[in-house]
Amino acid sequence: MKTPRAGAGPSTVLFLHHTSVLGGAERSLLDLVGELDRSRFSPIVVLPGNGPLADSFRALHVPVRYLALRRITRTLTPWALTVTLASVLITTVALTHLMWRARVRAVHANSMSALIFARPAAWLMRRPLIWHVRDFVPGGRFVRISTAGCAYVIAISRAIRAHLQRTLHVRAKIVLIYNGLDVEAAVRAGQPTVGWASFDKNLKVVAMAGQFVPWKKHAVFIEAAALVHRTYPDARFVVAGGDLFADHPGYRAELEALATRLGLGECLTFLGFVDDLPAHLPGVACLVLPSEREPFGRVLIEAMAAGRPVIAISRDGPAEIVRDRVDGFLTEPGSATGIAEAVSRILADPVLADSMGSRGRERVGRKFTLDRTAARFQRVLDAALTAGNARGALTP
């Protein structure tokens, strides 16, 4: 975290997010805010309530405020639409009051739900609005209207940028800023407290990490694990992650049943949500991310920073991170066979695995660092604030 210096006061920037859980998008926001130059920018974070994300921001000495934000889904029933509109109206009043009192100069929305809440308040207060797009958001008139008021839209990958241009017809300036990682802190000191730390060090551990949502394609990983297990019976497989929003209550049970049917037994372990995931990654043989429509793939750069080879699909965000047969392997979507072949090559050749891991660490240190991400983001903030001042933004 940057420390303030004497001189002109910093510009207050309000960061809005719709949840206080701590997933990949939230970790990226936390890192970004923590890396801001506090002599130039003073952050305030608005969340729907207390939780791990709020605790983490307070640990960085970032002020946190609570407003009645909610996840906005695509449900179009009259009742759901009425509740959403009422919620946006109530939040707009509270948010404009907060922006006035805190002398907010710019607003950052970290999700589509956050954008819908932030748009009216930013318009009323004539403050520049920046939307950080971390997912393949659905189209629709409501979203297009919201994007029309953005000073800048930040895409975390070329795939997201193309999606915004093709699906939402975004007219605001789209800026590509990859997520970044503090490489030196990516693998924290100390012993992991859960999960594969209990495995024999001689075992080869193949890991997957991701939220428990169907598009992450956990079933493909399990099917690939069953194929690898035939050749490498001493290999162990771990799945880290949980259903953070309780959207898929039966999903894990389905996956456990699949693992049982495929005869994996104790060879595969479901760890649930793992808070200290980076601490585990140096001990894995490789990390697999089989998800489709992956906007970026933060866990990939975490594993690469830990010096481990990675396996992902050859499309969207992962294809912009991983160089096939250089840092790891890229496979066709949905191909358990392709993943199994890639894992087997890594398990069979430790020299190849270490070489890929070294090149991956070098790539993250050159292209996906947090200071690089923060520097680009702060240039966007500077441009938005300059444009806002030129429009004669209201001042409290």
How are the elements arranged and paired?
Layout: E1 11-16, H1 24-34, E2 41-47, H2 52-59, E3 64-66, H3 78-101, E4 104-109, H4 112-125, E5 129-133, H5 141-147, E6 152-155, H6 158-168, E7 173-176, H7 183-186, E8 204-209, H8 218-231, E9 235-240, H9 251-261, E10 268-272, H10 277-280, E11 286-289, H11 298-305, E12 310-313, H12 316-321, E13 328-331, H13 336-348, H14 350-367, H15 370-390
Parallel strand pairs: 1-2, 1-4, 2-3, 4-5, 5-6, 6-7, 8-9, 8-11, 9-10, 11-12, 12-13
Helix pairs in contact: 3-4, 4-5, 8-13, 11-14
In short:
The protein has 396 residues and is an alpha/beta fold. The chain has helices spanning 24-34, 52-59, 78-101, 112-125, 141-147, 158-168, 183-186, 218-231, 251-261, 277-280, 298-305, 316-321, 336-348, 350-367, 370-390, and strands spanning 11-16, 41-47, 64-66, 104-109, 129-133, 152-155, 173-176, 204-209, 235-240, 268-272, 286-289, 310-313, 328-331. The chain is built from 15 helices and 13 strands.
Describe this structure in words.
The chain is of the alpha/beta class and 396 residues long. It has 2 domains: 11-180 and 369-390, 3-Layer(aba) Sandwich (Rossmann fold), CATH 3.40.50.2000; 185-367, Rossmann fold (3-Layer(aba) Sandwich). It is 44% helix and 16% strand. The protein has 15 helices and 13 strands. A 7-stranded parallel β-sheet has the order 3-2-1-4-5-6-7, with helices on both faces. A 6-stranded parallel β-sheet has the order 10-9-8-11-12-13, with helices on both faces. α1 links the parallel β1 and β2. Mean pLDDT is 87; it is low at 1-7 and 392-396.
